[in-house]
Design goal:
The complex is a heterodimer of chains A (337) and B (306). Chain A has 337 residues and is mainly α. Chain A is built from 15 helices and no strands. Chain A is globular, with a radius of gyration of 24 Å. Chain B is mainly alpha-helical. In chain B, 72% of the residues lie in helices and 0% in strands. Chain B has 13 helices and no strands. The longest helix of chain B is centred in the last third of the chain and has 37 residues. The termini of chain B are far apart. The chains are: A mainly alpha (337), B mainly alpha (306). Chains A and B meet through helix 1, helix 6, helix 7, helix 9 and helix 12 of A and helix 7, helix 8, helix 11 and helix 13 of B.
Chain lengths: 337, 306
């Protein structure tokens, strides 16, 4: 067990080192003078150029520069944003809860609808419901979510006025401290009546948009995995014992059918982060994805570099945790490798 | 001897009795069973025909600006005319023409990404599975790295370095989707390598290159073709996302994603300008995915879903 854990953890180290190298390389490949790229000044005087060259360590050999960079990263120094003059790590940590909250609600939307619907479709295989769900899920995972977001804004928010158009909370009516960074939690803690509901209303459309592709995938996955399980002997035995259909499907079958579904959910963190970039841009959701896009348009390369590194680190870490949990739950995985 | 003569059928008879349907015919009869897939293929074919014949089909040039008819409504709305059947956008471009030429751009991106990642993916996957362990570790780690960075974030990073353009979109999306091909080829090649026919070929003295390309590769093709088909739709979506963020093909290129981005400001006043490009993306991607599912069912019975 311990050996599996250690081996799995050790395997992420080269990936992380390669990630550091990639981001290190990336900012050197950006067109333009490296000093100007990093200091953000154009038409800089030769004296200041020499000063910053030395200051930034650009006069050192490349391998030294990389080691310095890695050293700083390992000490939590991810550089300073050109646009805000704030530490990149601080900015990331302020914005990340917003992305996390959005992702959480998106996944809840996808799972709470996708799993029951997929199970239903498998039980009533070939029925109208089954065919309809498969069509809907095909459209779900084929959806250009940036367009889907605009459509929902157009109809639900603008024409019907059911939800707000953008943002995380109505800033005119509500203001409170945000100790956790999660708007729903902070709204609950704030004791301001209506704040929690307002935060939820702001979450509805973005969560649907970000959850649409996972919903399609999860519904399909649950259905096919359920179909497989339903033809197993133990399910037939359970039926023969005279257990109610609900118990057979909901307890005996679903438990085993969900294993591959859980795998998909665990490993979807990467695609959620990619989707968050688009969703946050559409809904002006102040999270990490929108921040990355803004960093590009502001040519804020230190922020972009640090942001890409931090987002990817989160993905690597979550994938590692998911893998370790599987190892803990499923002995076959642990000993298989 | 006499019995042999009687039992052995003449050449023609043998052919008619033993004739197997050609692989293509067998594939088509399996593919045809799936009505959705045939429907998808028909739509893909029509879109491809529109893209190829855009010069003849499109009523206007996609980049000509009709200053007298900015944001003209489509035909089904009051004031719409056949001159601009689907209306015009904020710069007076004919939407229908831009959508038709946009099909060319999107299919070009999808097919380029697919073919480049197919070739590089096959090469890296085979080399990784069949040469030294060191190469295997390097390739596998590199692919792990690419997979660790969220797709769109990696594409954004690539575009930030190379600058936004149509070609760089293709480069960025190819890099993003490369690991899928490499891992697929590597895994199926490793699976094939343990089989006896490969050992037999090795014993017979088949060279390494020939072993890779003509012994092992053909047996890995089925899942690869399915991946390639579905990869086209993923590439189109990804590229449209980049276009929407302003990091893809630059104006006035009629790219569906950037058409959407340009029309965002008219979301309240002229919703159809926003609706149509997205619909084009959705229909294309759904059609390709339908076809890909049919391909999977026909080519690879193991992967057939319930």
């Amino acid at each position: 067990m311990l050996i599996y854990f250690l081996r799995r953890v050790a395997l992420t180290i080269p990936t992380f080192v390669a990630l550091m190298f990639l981001t290190f390389l990336a900012i050197r490949l950006v067109p333009g003078d490296p000093v100007e790229v990093r200091v953000g000044e154009h038409g800089i005087s030769p004296e200041r150029l020499a000063f910053f060259r030395h200051e930034l360590g650009l006069d050192l050999p490349v391998w030294r520069q990389f080691l310095d960079y890695a050293w700083r990263l390992l000490h939590g120094d991810f550089g300073v944003s050109l646009a805000t003059q704030q530490k990149v790590l601080t900015e990331f940590l302020t914005l990340f809860p917003a992305t996390l909250e959005l992702s959480f609600f998106a996944m809840m939307f996808a799972i709470l609808i996708g799993v029951p619907a997929g199970t239903m479709a498998a039980v009533k295989r070939g029925s109208l419901f089954d065919q309809a769900l498969m069509t809907v899920s095909l459209f779900g995972y084929s959806m250009p979510i940036f367009w889907w977001g605009l459509l929902l804004i157009m109809f639900v928010a603008v024409q019907l006025g059911l939800t707000p158009v953008s943002g995380r909370i109505d800033l005119i009516n509500y203001s409170f401290d945000q100790p956790s960074g999660f708007m729903t939690i902070d709204a609950l803690l704030s004791d301001q009546p209506g704040a929690f509901l307002d935060a939820l209303r702001h979450l509805i459309l973005p969560a649907i948009v970000l959850g649409t592709v996972p919903l399609g995938v999860i519904a399909r996955m649950t259905r096919s995995s359920m179909l497989e399980v339903l033809s197993e002997d133990y399910v037939r035995t359970a039926r023969a014992k005279g257990l109610s259909p609900f118990r057979v499907v909901g307890v005996h079958a679903l438990r085993n059918a969900l294993l591959p579904v859980v795998t998909v959910i665990g490993l979807s963190i990467s695609s959620l982060m990619a989707g968050a970039v688009l969703t946050e841009t559409i809904f002006s959701w102040p999270g990490v994805g929108k921040w990355l896009i803004e960093s590009i348009s502001r040519r804020d390369y230190p922020a972009l570099q640090g942001g890409v590194l931090l987002v990817s680190t989160v993905v690597i870490a979550v994938n590692l945790i998911v893998d370790l949990l599987y190892g803990a739950i499923n002995p076959r995985i642990r000993h298989g490798r | 001897m006499a019995a042999d003569v009687i039992l052995a059928p003449s050449g023609d008879e043998a052919r008619s009795v033993l004739a197997q349907p050609s692989p293509l015919a067998a594939f088509w009869s399996a593919f045809r069973e799936n009505r959705g897939a045939v429907f998808g293929l028909a739509i893909v074919a029509s879109i491809a025909a529109l893209a190829l014949g855009a010069d003849f089909v499109a009523p206007h040039s996609p980049i000509e600006q009709f200053r007298d008819a900015v944001r003209a409504p489509p035909i089904w709305q009051a004031g719409g005319s056949w001159r601009f059947a689907l209306g015009t956008d904020g710069d007076g471009h004919d939407t229908l023409s831009r959508l038709i030429y946009g099909a060319r751009v999107s299919l070009f991106i999808g097919l380029s990404v697919m073919s480049v990642s197919f070739v590089i993916g096959v090469a890296l996957g085979l080399v990784s599975a069949m040469t030294s362990p060191l190469v295997d570790v390097v390739v596998t780690r590199a692919m792990d790295l690419i997979m660790a960075v969220p797709s769109l974030v990696l594409a954004i990073l690539v575009v930030a370095i190379l600058g936004p353009s149509l070609v760089n979109t293709i480069v960025a999306v190819t890099i993003v989707y490369l690991p899928r091909y490499v891992r697929l080829v590597r895994a199926s090649a490793l699976g094939e390598l343990g089989k006896e026919y490969v050992a037999a070929a090795q014993v017979a003295g088949v060279g390494r290159l020939r072993l890779m390309l003509s012994t092992v590769l053909p047996n890995c093709l089925a899942p690869l073709i399915v991946q390639a088909a579905l990869g086209v739709s993923d590439a189109i979506l990804e590229a449209a996302g980049l276009g929407f963020l302003g990091l893809g093909a630059q104006p006035p290129t009629p790219e569906w994603g950037s058409m959407l981005a340009d029309s965002r400001e008219f979301i309240r006043s002229d919703p159809w300008i926003v609706t149509l490009p997205g619909l084009a993306i959705l229909i294309t991607v759904v059609a390709i995915n339908l076809t890909g599912d049919g391909l999977r069912d026909a080519l690879d019975p193991k992967m057939r879903r319930g």
